Structures are given as structure tokens and as C-alpha cells.
Amino acid sequence: GSHPQYEFIQVTEPRPGVGQITLNRPKSLNALSTPLITELNTALSSLQSSPTTRTILLTGSPRAFAAGADIKEMAPLTFSSAYLTSFIESWSNLTHTLKKPLIAAVSGHALGGGCELALMADILYCTKTANFGQPEIKLGTIPGAGGSQRLTRAVGKAKAMELILTGKSFSGEEAEKWGVAARSFGSWEELMEESLKTAETIAGYSKVAVQAAKEVVNKSQELGLRDGVEFERRVFHALFGSEDQKEGMGAFAEKRRAEWKDR
Ligand code: CAA
């Protein structure tokens, strides 16, 4: 059901094991104000600790995933106030401590902080007409929630420089072509249906294996190849200590469906 404690987001469980967070500040195209980010942090950590949630889906409206950090909130900030309150730092908590897979379903605008939030997801799906971009340069500033780092890793330096220095937006179709999005879809309905299907697929696997898979892929973004492969092997070895590895391989041999125990 819906959680009345939230003003700017909605939290639902559209399918078993799937927790959905819908950004819901329609009058400002889901601009990511500090109160909204606080709610998002609360919702993500409560879904992380919920024993029934296995996958998390983050979305907005057909018109806007999120049109960025809240410009009206930022306009009067000074260096000292931003520095002393560590403005935007709490955004890093959103995904750094999240161990369950996060799928972002993006339709409409995903600009500035909205693009950066989408880039934090483990799997990004979008509509072909989604409008991504880092327009901060037009406001006399720069991306502040990881855009210069994550977008550059996703599209390479040449394209990232062009996008961040010109502030030009790119479509969901381009996002897919450039490897920013895993897939793009022709309509909102198709986007949501396919996002839920993927969320359900992942929710159907062993929690232990899913968490390990996410962890090792994320390590590839931090480590060199040799250390990354080493890390992967350590985790792979560790999974021989799980009951679900015995169950998964046993079920294969016995030609039956695996029944995961999350152990
Ligand atoms: N912050 C605060 N309010 C915003 C907003 C934002 N990022 N984006 C849109 N809104 C508000 C508008 O001010 C408007 O409010 P009012 O009705 O009170 O005037 C309402 O949302 C609807 O927006 P528009 O009338 O502009 O709608 P549109 O369809 O004509 O244009 C848009 C849509 C192209 C997305 C346009 O709203 C826009 O350019 N928004 C700003 C995008 C942007 O620059 N984002 C980057 C922010 S900086 C940042 O995110 C820093 C960081 O890295 C963390």
C-alpha cells in the first residue's frame, strides 16, 4: 500500500518482491529538493531492510523522471552554506549503501540531478523520447551529484565533455545506443511493463547470488582489471558456501525448478 508519511514520493509494491518508488512532485517536474531527497533516502533504506523487497524500481511520471536539483532552493546558496551543510552529499547515501538492485525507469525529463540520479541506478531503462542531459553549464555551474564521473564512465570522455560543456540534451534512443540505458521503449506503458518484468525476474533469484552479482559488477567501476577479477573470484568461491548454490546446481541436475532459501 501507499505510505502516508511521504509528501514527495510514493512507495508501492506493484508485484511480489518489487518495491516501487515514484517521484511525485509534479508541479516542479520532480525537482529534487532536499526534503524530497531525504524522503527518497528514507524509502530506499526501508526497502533495503524490508525482508519482502527483493528489487527496487525507481520512476517518475511520463512527463518527468526529474528535472534536476531544485534550482529555486539552490539559487540563494553561498559557498560557505553549501560547504558547511555538505549540500548534495546526502545524495551519495542513496545508492552507496543500497545492496538490492535498483532499476530506474525514465520517461520525459532526466536533467541535471535527474540524469545523475538515473545514472546511479544499477539498470537504467527509458523511453526512446526521454530527455537526458547535464544542463548545469547554462546555470553557471557544473554537475554536482556525480554526473561528470558516471556519465564519463558510461559514454567516454569525448561525448561526456561535449554534453557537459554544451549542456545539450540527448534522447533515450541515444542513451541506449551509447550504453547509458540498457534498453529503450516506445511508450510509457511498455517501459513500466518491461521494468516490472525485469524487476520480477531478478526478484525470482537467490538474494545471496543477486547481492553478490551486483557487488562484483560495481567493483569493476572502482578497481583495475587484475584486482577486479581477483575480487570476483573471491566472491565466486564464497558462494560455494551458500545453500542456494547447492540448491541451484542440484535443481539443474534433477531437472527441477530451484527453490531459493536466501541462505
Ligand atoms: N528546479 C526547480 N523547479 C523546476 C525545475 C528545477 N530543476 N525544473 C522545472 N521546474 C519547475 C518550473 O520552474 C516550473 O515551475 P512554475 O510552474 O512554478 O514556473 C515547473 O517546474 C514546470 O516547468 P516548465 O514550465 O519550465 O516546463 P517546460 O515543459 O516548459 O520545460 C524543462 C521543462 C525543459 C525541464 C524546464 O523546466 C527546465 O529547463 N528545467 C530546469 C532543468 C535544469 O536546468 N536542471 C538542472 C538543475 S541543476 C542541478 O541539477 C545541479 C546538480 O547537478 C545536482
From TrEMBL:
Pfam families in UniProt: ECH_1 (PF00378)
Listed Gene3D superfamilies: 2-enoyl-CoA Hydratase, Chain A, domain 1, Lyase 2-enoyl-coa Hydratase, Chain A, domain 2
Family indicated by similarity: Belongs to the enoyl-CoA hydratase/isomerase family.
Tree of life domain: Eukaryota
Lineage, top ranks: Eukaryota, Fungi, Dikarya, Ascomycota, Pezizomycotina
Group of enzyme by EC: lyase
A GO MF term: enoyl-CoA hydratase activity
Name this protein carries in UniProt: Probable enoyl-CoA hydratase, mitochondrial
CDD domains: crotonase-like
Annotated source species: Cercophora samala
Enzyme Commission identifier(s): 4.2.1.17
Alphabetically ordered keywords of this record: Fatty acid metabolism, Lipid metabolism, Lyase
GO CC terms of this entry: mitochondrion
UniProt GO BP: fatty acid beta-oxidation
Transmembrane segments: none
Coiled-coil features, chain-numbered ranges: none
Keyword Lyase among record annotations: yes
